[in-house]
Specification:
CATH topology of the largest domain: Diphtheria Toxin Repressor, domain 2
Number of strands: 0
Helix content: over 70%
CATH class of the largest domain: Mainly Alpha
Number of domains: 2
Number of helices: 11
Distance between the termini: 76 Å
CATH architecture of the largest domain: Orthogonal Bundle
Radius of gyration: 26 Å
CATH superfamily of the largest domain: PSPTO4464-like domains
Largest sheet: none
């Protein structure tokens, strides 16, 4: 059987018709994984994620479902609903809640540097007072003194961590829920 060269060229010039079936499957699994992250959130944190009402209700329903197989099916349904929405704002909200967004990481580092400056120089309290007018400077001064004593005695850094907690609360004064969401994750790499 002889193949027509013209016919062979037609096969080679097929147009790209979108992602492969495997890629679409991987994308669906990513959306379902994101749905798995959403079902683990507390209702207060879930409220901060921009979700369509139907998807929000499906996630809340997941908590009410009791059996393993029913939970698996509900999670698949959530993944299906996720295909209908833009996942980027949801991913950004999840990252912010987890404290991994670039802005959140930068904010944590800024607070850590401010704490270090305070430990090096008590005059930094003036800077803190100008940036955070509601700061209790006397309390921070005492914590600074205690943190330096703890460091010299090689004791657990309780005051050191408390300084960070107070600075974080001052930073998030406009949005108190953010401070609770940030947790102590900003200190994960400290001694």
């Amino acid at each position: 059987m002889h193949r027509n060269p013209q016919h062979q060229n037609d096969d080679d010039s097929e147009e790209y018709d979108g992602p492969s079936k495997s890629q679409r499957k991987r994308d669906m699994h990513k959306l379902q994984d994101m749905g798995s992250e959403l079902v683990l959130l507390s209702p207060a944190r879930l409220a901060k994620v921009p979700l369509p009402e139907r998807l929000h209700e499906a996630i809340l329903e997941y908590a009410r479902v009791g059996k393993h197989e029913a939970k698996r099916r509900q999670l698949q349904f959530i993944g299906k609903l996720m295909r209908e929405v833009d996942p980027e704002p949801i991913r950004e909200a999840l990252d912010a809640i987890a404290g991994v967004s670039k802005a959140e990481i930068a904010r944590q580092h800024k607070l850590e540097r401010l704490r270090e400056r305070l430990l090096e120089d008590e005059g930094t309290l003036g800077d803190i007072a100008s940036v955070y007018p509601g700061a209790d400077l006397q309390h921070l001064r005492n914590l600074r003194r205690n943190a330096l004593k703890e460091r010299e005695a090689a004791k657990p850094p309780r005051a050191y961590r408390e300084i960070f907690r107070i600075l974080r609360e001052l930073e998030y004064a406009e949005d108190p829920d953010q401070a609770a969401d940030a947790g102590d994750d900003g200190e994960a790499d400290e001694a």
